[in-house]
Write a structure and sequence with these properties.
Shape: elongated
Oligomer: single chain
Order of helices and strands: HHHHEEEEEH
Largest sheet: 3 strands, antiparallel
Number of domains: 2
Number of strands: 5
Length: 144
């Protein structure tokens, strides 16, 4: 599997992929964005297709490899116990939960819950404003 960096370098050699500005009409009531909302989830395939559409020099196969590479890197970072921070989006953090007492709901008997690690997502302040406003445009007040 080719690394994300190698894929990006190969495109740079071919004249690169020009950054694409977000369309002015990018907001939650546009039909393209609502497709993911209607399904209830944004999938890897949805991400790869969106990247492929926004980056004209990138095929769907390359976009899928790019998405897979980013997710793999995020997973490896979390496995090392490190935080994944995405500016204006949020942070993924591994939290350790200690052993605690629980109860069997049927019998009411005490049951020990083993210590474990969980991944927690914390939205950035800007993301919270965007979600609260119901739009994907970054409000100008969030930058101040």
């Amino acid at each position: 599997m080719t690394s994300v960096a190698a894929t990006l370098r190969s495109h740079a050699k071919l004249g690169g992929v020009k950054p694409v500005e977000a369309p002015a009409d990018l907001h939650m009531d546009s039909s393209k964005n609502m497709d993911a909302v209607k399904k209830g989830a944004l999938t890897r395939q949805d991400l790869a297709e969106a990247i492929s559409e926004r980056c004209p020099g990138l095929s769907k196969r390359e976009a899928k490899r790019l998405v897979d590479g980013v997710i793999d890197e995020m997973t490896m970072t979390l496995l090392r116990g490190e935080t994944v921070k995405l500016h204006d989006f949020g942070s993924f953090v591994v939290r350790r939960k200690s052993e605690r007492a629980g109860r069997n709901p049927r019998t009411g008997a005490k049951v020990p819950i083993e210590p474990r690690q969980v991944v927690v997502f914390k939205a950035s302040p800007n993301m919270k404003v965007v979600v609260d406003a119901g739009t994907s445009k970054k409000p100008s007040s969030a930058n101040e």
